[in-house]
Design brief:
Distance between the termini: 23 Å
Number of domains: 2
Order of helices and strands: EEEEEHEEHHEHHHEEEHHHHHEHHHEEH
Shape: globular
CATH topology of the largest domain: Nucleotidyltransferase, domain 5
Radius of gyration: 22 Å
CATH superfamily of the largest domain: ATPase, nucleotide binding domain
Number of strands: 14
Structural class: alpha/beta
Helix content: 25-40%
Length: 404
């Protein structure tokens, strides 16, 4: 059983073909710079990496190219019928779906209604779905939503202290994102402890260029750091995260900026990039910090401090935690950031084993000492596998009963 997972951006298509029997990735890659002169397909399979330049004007052409390489060039599938299903990553479903669903015309209509909530993401996701439907007619398709896992948050967590009619009219509330990743690593944490997910209180820290933290209480999300948009919450690569809400208004007046200019400043020119004036990539800042660069050191300290505050908040929200998980590019690989976050938390039952912390790099690692009441883990995320599993489950659930 082979499932193709697609993650479509405005000018890119990430893909993985997964063998659901062995859970192995058969081939993975990306079509990038769609619509530009230097568009290309990059992929890896069987230990090889390939890169092909091509004219790729839209998502339809991009998916056609992917299928050509899957069938004709690499022969990892016999034909289109060899693909059991396609799972699509979709960023925003608003309050409409609390889980993965089969793609129907009603689902597409609902995603289009959510475009104002995710104007940069949903149009690209919809384009990818429609392109895949055209290229792979008859192949079942499912949508897995970044927001779905967080639909279990209680009202006290997702309402904003604004006039209630703004929620009723515009849907202004906390939605949360990275849900697929948070759910996957929470399940993995339970598996590594040989415990049921429903027995545990877990704080999952997805740290990358985009970062978020979720409080997973007995298997469900009860709070998360990202909000109405992915701008809320932690300091990120180029996003500011939590700031005084009057600052955007002040900037419009003091700097004579328009709404789009303020939006660009907060989303694309702030965060690690804005403070460091060096880079949005934490790896670059680590090098500069080791050389004594003051702003690189400050940026890393700010990043870690704000994560530590959220961990404290979620410890309070859940009356403690059994596990804290680090995932994402930074969470899995930046040992010094993990140490900065976790140091001086011993009064909360958090004891980091620095030797174990140094060993864990891009793979599972138990980071806590044996005496630590709160277990600390590094767990690589695998959103594609989670999407594939959810896609298989929803399609098998909706399959017509067999005769006889």
């Amino acid at each position: 059983m082979k499932i193709l997972v697609l993650n479509c951006g405005s000018s890119s298509i990430k893909f993985q073909l997964i063998n659901m029997i062995s859970k192995e990735v058969i081939i993975k890659g990306i079509v990038e710079r769609i619509g530009l002169n230097d568009a290309r397909l990059k992929y890896s399979t069987d230990g090889r990496k390939e890169e092909i330049s091509a004219v790729i004007g839209n998502h339809v052409t991009g998916i056609q190219m992917i299928m050509k390489y899957l069938i004709d060039i690499e022969a990892v599938v016999k034909d289109k019928g060899d693909i059991f299903a396609v799972g699509h990553r979709v960023v925003h479903a608003g309050e409409k779906y609390a889980g993965t669903v089969m793609i129907t015309e009603d689902v597409l209509a609902a995603l289009k209604e959510c475009i104002p909530l995710a104007p940069l993401h949903n149009p690209a996701n919809i384009s990818g779905i429609e392109a895949a439907q055209k290229i792979l007619p008859g192949v079942p398709m499912a949508g897995a939503f970044d927001t779905a896992f967080h639909q279990t948050m209680p009202e006290k967590a997702y309402y904003y202290p604004l006039p209630l009619q703004l929620y009723e009219k515009h849907g202004i509330r906390k939605y949360g994102f990275h849900g697929t990743s948070h759910f996957f690593v929470a399940k993995e944490a339970a598996r590594h402890l040989d415990r049921k997910l429903e027995e545990l209180r877990i704080i999952t820290c997805h740290l990358g260029n985009g970062s978020s933290i979720t409080a997973v209480d007995h298997g469900v999300s009860v709070d998360t750091s990202m909000g109405f948009t992915p701008l809320e919450g932690l300091m990120m690569g180029t996003r500011c995260g939590d700031i005084d809400p009057y600052i955007p208004i002040f900037l419009q007046k003091a700097e004579n900026l328009g709404p789009e200019e303020v939006n660009s400043l907060l989303n694309k020119k702030s965060g690690i990039q804005g403070v460091s004036q060096i880079s949005s990539d934490m790896r670059d800042l680590e090098i500069k910090a080791d050389q004594g660069n003051r702003l690189a050191i400050l940026s890393r300290e700010m990043f870690a401090y704000r994560i530590k505050k959220y961990i404290g908040a979620y410890l309070a929200a859940m009356n403690g935690a059994d596990v804290i998980v680090f995932t994402g590019g930074i969470g899995e690989r930046d040992r010094n950031i993990r140490r900065q976050i976790l140091q001086d938390l011993d009064n909360l039952g958090i004891f980091l084993d620095e030797t174990a912390n140094q060993k864990a790099f891009g793979e599972f690692g138990l980071l806590s000492t044996s005496q630590s009441p709160v277990k600390l883990m590094c767990i690589p995320t695998n959103e594609e596998l989670e999407i594939a599993e959810q896609t298989r489950n929803i399609i098998e659930k909706n399959a017509p009963p067999t005769k006889g």
